[in-house]
Every structure is written in structure tokens, then in C-alpha cells.
């Protein structure tokens, strides 16, 4: 049995000297791979280096997180597309992202919030253009901005079959909007939280045949570790809960399906 954590952040573990233990525990939990998701220029090359050093176990993406967008977003994105270029250092990213829109963390002042959200939209459109040219998988961050995010993706002409809304926290109606377009959602430890019945409904509505698991580590630790620093090994708890409580299948069956889905979506062997 193997699992793939399709979304985590490893820079904090690396800076604290904790990454070797994190990787060891991930292997012991049955992970064959994890995707270290880039949020800005400061971690793209870092994750590329980790992906080269830990080939197969660590893969990576590159993108500008909406909460990292400011008036200098064009400069921040100046080198993004070069990570896929003919002369780019290997390995290449497995996806562009995470990118998208986030209303939750906007400034409290309404004028400043409008200005920041405008920058987010511009930076998102720019990254959608790049993804369209590259025809690569696209990892979406959307928080309190589902309708706006879907609208911009629709307008971009990006192939929805290559789009995943990570850390999905909406309900069945919203996931249906993704599925009818050909997109999908992936699910974190939120799935295991008592106060998240809508998220479980969304997972069921999407179906096991499109289901992928992630941790978003170091955030959102699943039960029974809620409140602690999350890590990729704990994606197994998400899988165990989804198998038993959401889909009513064996862990082995769910693991096989989610691993296949992740390999096919991200194009990884």
C-alpha cells in the first residue's frame, strides 16, 4: 500500500533541521511521494533542490500564493516560467501553483483590501496565462473567493481537467461546479474534523474516482493530532478516515485509487 501527499510545505522543517525525520516517518507511514508546493520565489529553487536530492520521494511545484501578492507581484513572477524552460535545471515542477484568490486574509481597511484583491486577480490571471501555455497541472488556492476564482479560470481558457482546488473547504454544490467543468478538489485533515460535515459531503459528491489526499503540512493536522504541527506522514490519517467514514471502503482500496489519481493528474511515475 502506498500514498501520495499531494500538497505540503517543507521549508520550515528544513530550516529547523527536522526534514530527515519527517521523510523517514513519511516512508514508514507508506508514502511513496509528496509534493512540496511553492508559494513564492524564495522556495521554488529550494524545493527543486530537495526534489533532486530526494528523487521520487519529494516532487515540487512553483507558483505565487495569493497571500504573498503585493504591488511587486510582476517582479516576483519574473522567473516563474523559466522553471519549465528548455534550459531549466532539472527536475521540472510537476505543477504550477499554488495560486489563486484569498479574501480571508485581506486587510481590514476596505480600500486597502480592494487594492490587494486587485493585485491578487492580476497575478492570478498572469499565472493562468502561463499555465495555459505550459499545459501543466494547476494547483489552486481559493479561500472565501470560490465564485471569483472559478470565473477567472473559466475566462482564461485553461483546461479544467488539469485544475485541482487544494484543501477543499466548500460543500457539495461547489464541488459539483468543479466536476462539471472537469476539475477536481483534494482534501486535507479538515475532512476528519467534527465540524466539517459539508466537506465530507463534498468528498462524497465528487466521488472516490477523483479523490486525492493531502496534508497542507505543517498546517491542518488531522484527528487525532489536531492542533499539532502537521507532517506528510499524517496523510495516512486522512486516508484512513476517508476510507472508513466517507467512502466505506478498505484503506488499501482507497490508497490504490488516490495514488493512481495523483500519479495521473500530476504526471508522475
Write the layout of secondary structure elements.
Layout: E1 3-8, H1 11-15, H2 19-28, E2 31-36, H3 41-53, E3 58-62, H4 73-76, E4 95-102, H5 110-134, E5 138-143, H6 146-156, E6 163-165, H7 172-181, E7 184-185, H8 197-206, H9 235-247, H10 251-266
Parallel strand pairs: 1-2, 2-3, 3-4, 4-5, 5-6, 6-7
Q: How would you explain this protein's 3D organization?
A:
This protein has 269 residues and is of the alpha/beta class. Helix content is 43%, strand content 13%. The chain contains 10 helices and 7 strands. It has a 7-stranded parallel sheet with strand order 1-2-3-4-5-6-7, with helices on both faces. Strand 5, helix 6 (146-156) and strand 6 (163-165) form a beta-alpha-beta unit. The longest helix has 25 residues, at 110-134. It is globular and about 45 Å long. The mean pLDDT is 97.
Strand content: 5-15%
Morphology: globular
Largest sheet: 7 strands, parallel
Radius of gyration, CA atoms, in whole angstroms? 17 Å
Please state how the strands of the largest beta sheet are arranged side by side.
1-2-3-4-5-6-7
Q: How many beta-strand elements?
A: 7
Structural class: alpha/beta
| Mean pLDDT over all positions | 97
- Please trace the helix and strand order, writing H or E for each element: EHHEHEHEHEHEHEHHH
The termini sit apart by 16 Å
The helix count comes to 10
Helix fraction bin: 40-55%
List keywords for this structure.
seven-stranded parallel sheet; 269 residues; 10 helices; single chain
Brief summary:
Helices cover 43% and strands 13% of the residues.
Amino acid at each position: 500500500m502506498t500514498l501520495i501527499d499531494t500538497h505540503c510545505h517543507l521549508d520550515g522543517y528544513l530550516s529547523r533541521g527536522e526534514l530527515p525525520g519527517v521523510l523517514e516517518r513519511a516512508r514508514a507511514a507508506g508514502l511513496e511521494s509528496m509534493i512540496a508546493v511553492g508559494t513564492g520565489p524564495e522556495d521554488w529553487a529550494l524545493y527543486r533542490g530537495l526534489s533532486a536530492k530526494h528523487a521520487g520521494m519529494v516532487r515540487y511545484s512553483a507558483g505565487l500564493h495569493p497571500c504573498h501578492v503585493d504591488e511587486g507581484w510582476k517582479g516576483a513572477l519574473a522567473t516563474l516560467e523559466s522553471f519549465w524552460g528548455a534550459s531549466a535545471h532539472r527536475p521540472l515542477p510537476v505543477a504550477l501553483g499554488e495560486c489563486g484568490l484569498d479574501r480571508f486574509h485581506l486587510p481590514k481597511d476596505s480600500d486597502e483590501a480592494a487594492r490587494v484583491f486587485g493585485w491578487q486577480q492580476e497575478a492570478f490571471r498572469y499565472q493562468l496565462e502561463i499555465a495555459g501555455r505550459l499545459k501543466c497541472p494547476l494547483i489552486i488556492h481559493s479561500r472565501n473567493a470560490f465564485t471569483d476564482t472559478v470565473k477567472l479560470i473559466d475566462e482564461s481558457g485553461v483546461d479544467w481537467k488539469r485544475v485541482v482546488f487544494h484543501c477543499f473547504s466548500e460543500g457539495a454544490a461547489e464541488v459539483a461546479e468543479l466536476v462539471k467543468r472537469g476539475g477536481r478538489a483534494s482534501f486535507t485533515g479538515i475532512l476528519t474534523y467534527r465540524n466539517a460535515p459539508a466537506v465530507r459531503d463534498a468528498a462524497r459528491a465528487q466521488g472516490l474516482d477523483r479523490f486525492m489526499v493531502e496534508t497542507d503540512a505543517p498546517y491542518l493536522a488531522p484527528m487525532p493530532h489536531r492542533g499539532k504541527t502537521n507532517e506528510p506522514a499524517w496523510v495516512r490519517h486522512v486516508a484512513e478516515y476517508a476510507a472508513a467514514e466517507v467512502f466505506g471502503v478498505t484503506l488499501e482500496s482507497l490508497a490504490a485509487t488516490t495514488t493512481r489519481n495523483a500519479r495521473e493528474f500530476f504526471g508522475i511515475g
